[in-house]
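Notebook entry, structure prediction.
Reason for the run: the old model in the group folder had no record of what sequence produced it. Starting over properly, with the input documented here first.
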Amino acid sequence: MAKKHTPRFLAIVEAARSEIAECEAADLRAMTEDGQPLVVLDVRERHEFEAGHMEGAVHIGKGVIERDIEKHDFADDVRIVLYCGGGFRSAIAAKSLQDMGWSNVLSLWGGWRGIQAEGLPIWTP
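New structure, fully documented this time:
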């Protein structure tokens, strides 16, 4: 059974989506192959990340991304694609990074499910 999100949560997500750039898994595949610098951030909870994630993804949970992003030495203009389970949490996190000054941030619509459906390289325990 699909998760039901609350109207208030969906309102926050839609507000964020209206102000950020998004991509789909096929776009992410193209980005991984174009030779340009790319950071893929998994913003899911630690247990979700540990159960499986896109190869090469860096884990920074949505709940701490604003605090912890600068612990990594990412250039302000590096291309960053964020993903979660389906694209909701990553949209909110992308908006936060954009507000903090990162200029090339995208949220992956479809998230982890899209990564799996596209057949992108994944790591599982």
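Summary: The chain has one domain: 21-123.
The old model has been moved to the deprecated folder.
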